[in-house]
TrEMBL record:
Keyword set, alphabetical order: ATP-binding, Kinase, Nucleotide-binding, Plant defense, Serine/threonine-protein kinase, Transferase
Family: Belongs to the protein kinase superfamily.
Keyword Transferase applies: yes
Superkingdom assignment: Eukaryota
InterPro entries hit by this protein: Kinase-like_dom_sf (IPR011009), Plant_Ser_Thr_Prot_Kinase (IPR050823), Prot_kinase_dom (IPR000719), Protein_kinase_ATP_BS (IPR017441), Ser-Thr/Tyr_kinase_cat_dom (IPR001245), Ser/Thr_kinase_AS (IPR008271)
Binding locations of ATP: K117
EC identifiers of the protein: 2.7.11.1
Protein's name in the database: non-specific serine/threonine protein kinase
Pfam families per the UniProt record, alphabetical: PK_Tyr_Ser-Thr
GO biological process: defense response
GO molecular function: ATP binding; protein serine/threonine kinase activity
Domain Protein kinase positions: 82-363
């Protein structure tokens, strides 16, 4: 992007003067009109792409508390003009760079490593996703949501600044061969953290449907605390007598709920299905879609779900790298949870608050007989009645899958 020179230096000087009069993490820069009449509510965000917003009137968004409006010059400074060796990753939105903010960037800033996401300037959809993410993360705060520290909106530049997540994405830890396999306890910790993030969104005063839950959007801090990132596809949930939100089908093939793919009807239970897919990835160590596997095993849900509720088969699908790390009872609890989350009938899926309740006993050796999986313990286990799924009383409808959940209208999913 290059150095912005004197013009940007003036902008920084102006920002320095303003920050002394405002609280830390309050909007301070040019090009953002904070007039309340221009504020957007959650209802305005139900389909940003349909509101007719343009690059110009994006400057009229009202930003809530706790985030900083950075200048482009400041973000160029902390990324060394977006140097290639500062790149953390790339995706559909754009490129993510590492950076470091402190007093040298702006008076009053706390020293902090950050990740700077730069929007690809080609395409209107990227701008809408940027706007949606600023609006949601500008209002939502939770230990299992990545923290949005700031943003930049200058001319046609759109950037987001997040807390830096030291361990990167869950996707990298699960599927990169060079990375040490995650332990069972760590996987259950990650599953619980991600579930808490979704439960918070679904139970907000105005429910939020995340819509793009997948391993690449789950980031991990130094303690393997899971945090949801990338809210570009998030939607405000239905209100009042509404049963769903109708929207264009977007998401990632292999994770999207079948009823959403077929109808465009979005509910919180769509997120529950996606959670089930990720939980299955954690349990098996396999990708949701893997074209390198035999035909019948390429769709993880198609291959694994029939085995999840079969006491003689469920342990055979657990990631073999997890040998001796979990009890039979814990494995069954986790597999049974995944089975119900992946139900073809949305109403038969649990609430995310119930998912959290089910996962909590699996932490730190919970739900364990202190005996790791062995052939003898497995034989003893399958000879007895399976323990009831603790939230089964909430389930309704026919739980048996009638068709493949990943075959319907797959081609219209947006691959991100």
């Amino acid at each position: 992007m290059g150095n912005c020179g004197t013009k940007e230096e003036s902008a920084v000087a102006s920002a320095h003067a303003q920050v002394q009069q405002l609280q830390l993490f309050q909007p301070t820069v040019k090009n953002i009109c904070l007039d309340k009449k221009n504020d957007l509510s959650f209802s305005d965000l139900r389909d940003v792409s349909a509101t007719g917003w343009t690059i110009e009137n994006a400057r009229n968004i009202a930003i809530y508390t706790n985030i900083i409006a950075f200048t482009l010059f400041e973000l160029e400074t902390i990324t060394k003009s977006f140097r290639s060796d500062y790149i953390l990753g790339e995706g559909g939105f754009g490129t993510v760079y590492k950076g470091y903010i402190d007093e040298n960037v702006r008076v009053g800033l706390k020293s902090l490593p950050v990740a700077v996401k730069v929007l690809n300037r080609d395409g209107h959809q990227g701008h809408n996703e940027w706007l949606t993410e600023v609006k949601f993360l500008g209002q939502l705060r939770h230990p299992n949501l990545v923290k949005l520290i700031g943003y930049c909106c200058e001319d046609d530049h759109r950037l987001l600044v997040y807390e830096f997540m030291f361990r990167g994405s869950l996707e990298n830890h699960l599927f990169r061969k060079t990375v040490t396999p995650l332990l069972w306890a760590t996987r259950m910790l990650i599953a619980l953290g991600a579930a808490k993030g979704l439960a918070f969104l679904h139970n907000a005063e105005r429910p939020v449907i995340y819509r793009d839950f997948k391993t690449s959007n789950i980031l991990l801090d130094s303690d393997f605390t899971a945090k949801l990132s990338d809210f570009g596809l998030a939607k405000a949930g239905p209100q009042g007598d509404e049963t769903h939100v109708s929207t264009r089908v977007m998401g990632t093939y292999g994770y999207a709920a079948p009823e959403y793919v077929m109808t465009g009807h979005l509910t919180a239970r769509s997120d529950v299905y996606s959670f089930g897919v990720v939980l299955l990835e954690l349990l098996t160590g396999r990708k949701a879609v893997d074209k390198t596997r035999p035909c019948r095993e390429q769709s993880l849900v198609d291959w694994a779900r029939p085995k999840l509720n079969d006491k003689r088969k469920l342990l055979h699908i657990i990631d073999p790298r997890l040998e001796d790390q979990y009890s039979v009872r814990a494995a069954h609890k986790a597999c049974n949870l995944a089975y119900y989350c992946l139900s073809q009938n949305p109403k038969a899926r649990p609430l995310m608050s119930d998912v959290v309740e089910t996962l909590e006993p699996l932490q730190s050796g919970g739900c364990s007989s202190n005996n790791p999986v062995s052939r003898s313990s497995y034989q003893i286990f399958v000879g007895n009645r399976l323990p009831e799924y603790q939230i089964q009383h909430r389930m309704v409808g026919n739980l048996a899958p009638k068709c493949s959940p990943n075959h319907a209208a797959a081609s219209i999913c947006k691959v991100r």
